[in-house]
């Protein structure tokens, strides 16, 4: 088809326009103009660049069509006819009401026709040009259309249509009213800021719409809906009349104030008369003869019922949020009703599992009864206590739903919360300690008396019995491994403790568990009675079992497998044969399978090493070693005698013989696979130090082991193979000296790369490939980690490391199974998760965060976890696991019932432990969380991984969360409208919550009284906190993860009535967005006395322009615990910092260099980062004595030319970073005198800066300091 010329297109367009104009005159009832506009916009909406604009116009075209139809069909109400709203004075005395409505309709049609006139040339060109849009023409067309829409909204809709909605009866078409509400919701989404107010008005309008849809589906006649339709349309009219359809900060504030007033006065769904209207139509709908609900489902009307049930849940949450002064028992009753409605929602999603009779019962009776019960709640009753009949009704509803759940359970893998389950095995005593600590906290907590009431005595009895049993288990923890009766008793106690914890937690969320709790209490008491008898009968002490790697593993790798490590051999050889004459140790450390033993053997047998030492001996230590065994091995290797000659001798004689052999000889002893300091302590007295250069070479998985017996020793960290070295080793094992066949070269190289530099993995996979057809090698590559882990040697090597961990570290290691393979994990995120999971026990004199960091360092020292990137102060920024270790963690976590890993969501095909504690879901695209709630009702931790670009609708996910969750990581789910998933506020046990994109936190967050960590990823705006946030006294971390390169966002605290709000005295870490006025900041900081790490950014919606200079002083010196401060924005503001500050980062502060002396006087400052125009001016002149403890200095994107300093300014400096300081001419020459300097990084600076840095390096070398390294990344011209 030819592409029509623009003139042809215009002719066609004008013909179409003339046709519509004439059609409009002859038939003012026609909707053809709207239909044509909608068709045109629907097609243009597919265009990727401008589709967003066309979607906006499409929504407004639907609104115009709906308003047009409504105005045409409605009829006039009189004062005596008005039922819920008083009629207005008739202001239309001049013209008849028919003429008035016709004129309104004509104007709406006119807007649609002119919009078609503007867009059709672009439309035809788009259609006939292969979907290519002329952007130059379309922008002006969109602009004209938006102007016409704006005029329609401000005049026809806001004035004329709003008056019609208020003064006229709704037409006899409920669906038209439902469409009107839907269009109004879309309009509000464009005009109301994201926040709790918008969610409230959306939920109330949706409830009205969904109620109309539900009773209409039930068969209720339109004449019986008059009151409901009238109230709904009047509410819409009131809302439209206050709307302002243009964007401005002051306009937005005024609009929200008007709407806030409106929802409390005119759209108050808790009003008695409104609730009576709801109950009236629901009661009438139950009496209607109607087709079966099963038939309605076949017509795809099931979503109507599901949406209505969802609105009932929102109504109850709105009710709870509106009245904060509920008594706790009343609140629990309402939450119980919410729980039953939640269960009903789950059942509705399972209609394919229900028979027609059950569907009819749900759709026709149960939903109506639940709605009537919900709308029967009055505010006065809520404040004073619910009447008995309400409580009975909730109880009856529970019984009905329990029957229905049983019906569904026949066809679905449902699990009862009380069914048997495999409790997590790692660190069982630590888990019991955590449970006992929770019971103590519960006894102290004010909520105990109200929440659990008469259960309190039961809980106290359980606590006392478990304290006794905990002590008993401690006594038998070593014996149980080799005693079946003790192991069985141990398992019974742990299962009873886990069940008790489960039932108490369920009690706190409103479940009635008296009988079950009594039964568990009796079981625990019986176990307490049985304990002494069992212990008396099993007094034999046994050693803890240990795993021994078979001798073949040591031989799995040979000297010929050493590829590309010549540099390592040379380094170790030098350390053995050179240096101090004193006896010294040379540790080779690294993860299992890295080739430590192979390297050590290579060096030990090297001719240069053999000739250097007079005596050589070696032994294999292993986990459990005896002094006798070690001495026998060493003596046999030294003098080549048979072990039989030494086995009968006692330890003292053997020790003396070894000492005599070594005395006055230069000796080399090789201790293979050292696990702890015990082996050294056993041998130390037999190792003479004759100052002749003797050495002890040993291998270990523990990086810092040598520091325990040689404090100044430096371990040699064996590196991984490069990809090329791994490929060379694989070829050598597969083909010997022959070349690799070209057909498998590419896949072979890929397999070698996947081994991630681990020689043992290369050797083991070579053995597998040698017996695998070459056309199947690609399949091996796809599952390499699991294949290698199936090998006995590899599995036992990792099992050995795991079994040797202290119990408290085992869950910390297995938690890595929750993360993706090869994922670089933020260390602080990991530590916060460990703390929330209660893996970390607080050590005396340390904060729990410090104890968690010690746990992490212990795993790194054991070569199981690798640190990635160093913080300027405080260890690694991130970490990762080798694929083999990760795969081991995944398998072990499943085996120990610690964590269930779901890769593909298929609820009917899920196989795993019953009622697991922790679940991570890898692919959230197909996820329905309500299904997860059915399958795993007792879930405590849920971590979701998904596609960042994939936006979820709450309706798609069916946010019905397991009610016992403690950890919830939703950071991979991006909800539409950046809304807060309201179901979260019912999770009263929640300690850790991570969300993505939300820009407000609802007031009901105060229900989460145990919340410790709240994280929001990538918000588009500042996150507004409600005033109720001050009531969550457990909060420790309020964090925002920002996109790189955008204005930083943070939490916006409410500042009203702070004098009566409690302090957040546990808050440790905060990202704060604040108006820079000192008064606002001081009000907030006074409530946060324990802050250690504070990122404070200027709130751009504040009262001061972000770019204006000011003389304001931001005072942080009252924060006595503050160690790290990051200021972002606050152009020209000064600040006061506490003397204990260790780290300071400034960005976009634009202060003069003269003000930096205040920072220089901070006595404990170790890290200073001056970024992005934090200081302005051409010269920075440092004063003598400033920055006495500075270790790291980073300067980035600063426009200064000259830098003058004194040597004492850098007396402790370790690292200097210069980044894109494009005008700086050179660095201070006195840096050459800095003895502590180790690194200078330069990027994007002048060549003269690079020259001055190289000169400093040369000065350092001349002083004998060869430690200093410089990195030059680019040079600015």
Automatic annotation (TrEMBL):
The keyword Cytoplasm applies. Keywords: ATP-binding, Cytoplasm, Hypersensitive response, Leucine-rich repeat, Nucleotide-binding, Plant defense, Repeat. Residues 200-384 form the Late blight resistance protein R1A-like N-terminal domain. It is found in: Cytoplasm. Residues 963-1222 form the Disease resistance R13L4/SHOC-2-like LRR domain. The keyword Nucleotide-binding applies. Gene3D superfamilies: Helical domain of apoptotic protease-activating factors (1.10.8.430), P-loop containing nucleotide triphosphate hydrolases (3.40.50.300), Ribonuclease Inhibitor (3.80.10.10), Winged helix-like DNA-binding domain superfamily/Winged helix DNA-binding domain (1.10.10.10). Residues 819-888 form the Disease resistance protein winged helix domain. Residues 566-739 form the NB-ARC domain. Belongs to the disease resistance NB-LRR family. Confers resistance to late blight (Phytophthora infestans) races carrying the avirulence gene Avr1. Resistance proteins guard the plant against pathogens that contain an appropriate avirulence protein via an indirect interaction with this avirulence protein. That triggers a defense system including the hypersensitive response, which restricts the pathogen growth. This is Late blight resistance protein homolog R1A-10. It comes from Coffea arabica.
